[in-house]
């Protein structure tokens, strides 16, 4: 979603930097679950990348052979742009005892325009009954199109077939924003208990206000958002352009200030949001850092079916 940075970034950043962040959510607190780099690199990266392929099973066959695709849901997310398809899939793994919901990132100028116009037009709104926090209405609406377009039936089927399995919710870029909404929605309708869920996103933009971040942090004990070095998208939207309300991430950020090769160090941020961790980085933002996670070109690797030879998809 590189289009989110452009002319809006300076305004958002200035508003963000003038906000006081002496807030309870930023009281340094370690995550309830330990961060496992190998799990993220080998499993969550594959699940996230698989959404880039029209047939995610190709990625599973190459990287996670016991993971089985259930269904892909593809819907049109805009009534005034052409190439604005929102995509999510469901999968299950009887070895890992997990059900997966994963969402694809944005693609093309039309979809980026539709997202930004929706954010500016509708801003953040209250959409959940279990929290008074607010999220971007356009992201919620996009998720509901996917949910009502078939994913609701798919998730319920898998839930009832495998009632004891965990639910893993993930995504990259726009897919990460949809994953945040999806996780909240499933708890809001009492379909899943939050302790039975793992929420992991990459290259996410902020989607909600402080109250939403507080609720999401307190609700989901396994909750990570991964940031690659100078990825511009996590720094792109810091206030709601409609109401000028500051936006916040739920905890816990994991920041890799490197290429994210195996063995590279990372920082687990004990604060939620503000002038901490990746937000302290004053380097020039790098668009490619949004596309490359764990030193793999995420879209290209996914389109190719997640082959074993990752060297061809490395950033360096």
Automatic annotation (TrEMBL):
Coiled coil: none annotated. GO terms for biological process: lipid metabolic process. This is Lipase_3 domain-containing protein. PANTHER family: FUNGAL LIPASE-LIKE DOMAIN-CONTAINING PROTEIN, PROTEIN CBG11750-RELATED. It comes from Caenorhabditis japonica. Residues 100-237 form the Fungal lipase-type domain. It comes from the Eukaryota.
